[in-house]
């Protein structure tokens, strides 16, 4: 049986890391067909739109997309293409794993294995009621947190912990100060936690959580939190393992899911074959898990680890002198 996925090659280094990722996926022979679609600057140049209707239709039809980084030009129709995609498809859970890998520029040689589950559709990033006073002296933006949004992302985190054999979920909040918004999130997440007696649940104030992550990341397993806090914490976790070049992201909704590298388009090295494809490859691993192909996802992750251990064709950011596609070929040879 084959599965068709929407493939968005992206901007900057996007096409290079996507070609590398598809090379490895083809080597896995998991029965994927690719439907290519445009977004970002490439789409703007072709169609005059950052997110063409044909691309949205493709994602709706296939329900799974693999996406390289995109550029939202200044003056675009919306503040962020990624935020718009999350809104359009109600991709309510952003899932960012951070795991120690060998031979990387990390402060921790091992022991980091954390998944951040971030509410993806509301909170501070919903940007409701944004306005700046005429004299520029005051700016206002409304942050909205709902019971529905809090409940479904908390449940996703606990279900993820249960299905992957993880033992603990930490609810991260600022309910001591933000008693309405963060308070509601904490209250609802605690209610959900009570339905999962097999999973240890704790809650932690966000500033303390950040400190504890830096000091003893091994104490954490799954983190669940609101949109803004999750954005910050997931990047902090990326820093613990050597940077965004090793950090994938999944955006999960009821009717669609988009998997991606969470780093930017890196236009300064675009077209030079220097980009590390690991983040997008790991995002493809998340996609395989989502498609029920967990065995192949583990083959992919195992091949990445083996290639890092062998220091085979590593890109410059990992201390090697290999190229993007050379690194991908080394990984493909081990799947």
Automatic annotation (TrEMBL):
- Membrane-crossing residue ranges in chain numbering: none
Query: Where in this chain does the record put each Isopropylmalate dehydrogenase-like domain?
Result: 4-331
Q: What is its EC number?
A: 1.1.1.41
**What keywords appear on the UniProt entry?**
Oxidoreductase
Task: Cite the GO molecular-function annotations of the record.
Answer: isocitrate dehydrogenase (NAD+) activity; magnesium ion binding; NAD binding
Superkingdom is Bacteria
* SMART domains from the UniProt entry: Iso_dh
According to its UniProt entry, the protein's GO biological process terms are: isocitrate metabolic process; tricarboxylic acid cycle
A Pfam family of this chain: Iso_dh
InterPro entries reported for this sequence? IsoCit/isopropylmalate_DH_CS, IsoPropMal-DH-like_dom
Q: Would I find rRNA-binding among this entry's keywords?
A: no
To which protein family does this belong? Belongs to the isocitrate and isopropylmalate dehydrogenases family.
Checking NCBIfam families in the record gives: PRK08997.1
What is the protein named?
Isocitrate dehydrogenase
Species of origin reads Lysobacter defluvii IMMIB APB-9 = DSM 18482
């Amino acid at each position: 049986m084959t599965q068709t996925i929407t493939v968005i090659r992206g901007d900057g280094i996007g096409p290079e890391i996507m070609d590398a990722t598809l090379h490895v996926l083809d080597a896995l022979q998991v029965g994927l067909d690719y439907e290519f679609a445009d977004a970002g600057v490439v789409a703007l140049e072709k169609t005059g739109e950052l997110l063409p209707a044909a691309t949205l239709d493709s994602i709706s039809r296939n329900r799974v997309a693999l996406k390289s980084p995109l550029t939202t030009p200044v003056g675009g129709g919306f503040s962020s293409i990624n935020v718009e995609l999350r809104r359009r498809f109600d991709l309510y859970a952003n899932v960012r794993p951070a795991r120690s890998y060998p031979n990387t520029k990390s402060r921790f040689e091992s022991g980091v294995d954390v998944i951040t589950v971030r509410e993806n559709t509301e909170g501070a990033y919903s940007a409701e009621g944004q306005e700046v006073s005429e004299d520029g002296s005051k700016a206002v933006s409304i942050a909205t947190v709902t019971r529905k949004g809090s409940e479904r992302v908390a449940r996703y985190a606990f279900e993820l912990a249960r299905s992957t054999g993880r033992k603990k979920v930490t609810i991260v909040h600022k309910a001591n100060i933000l008693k309405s918004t963060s308070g509601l999130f904490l209250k609802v997440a605690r209610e959900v936690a009570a339905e999962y007696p097999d999973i240890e649940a704790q809650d932690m104030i966000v500033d303390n959580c950040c400190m504890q992550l830096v000091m003893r990341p091994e104490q954490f397993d799954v983190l669940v939190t609101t949109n803004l806090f999750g954005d910050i914490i997931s990047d902090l976790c990326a820093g613990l393992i050597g940077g965004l070049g090793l950090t994938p992201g999944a955006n999960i909704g009821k009717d669609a899911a988009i998997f991606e590298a969470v780093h930017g388009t890196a236009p300064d090295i675009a077209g030079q074959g220097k980009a590390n494809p690991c983040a997008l490859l790991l995002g493809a691993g998340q996609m395989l898990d989502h498609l029920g192909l967990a065995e192949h996802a583990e083959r992919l992750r195992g091949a990445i680890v083996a290639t890092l251990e062998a220091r085979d064709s590593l890109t410059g950011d990992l201390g090697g002198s290999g190229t993007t596609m050379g690194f991908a070929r080394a990984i493909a040879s081990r799947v």
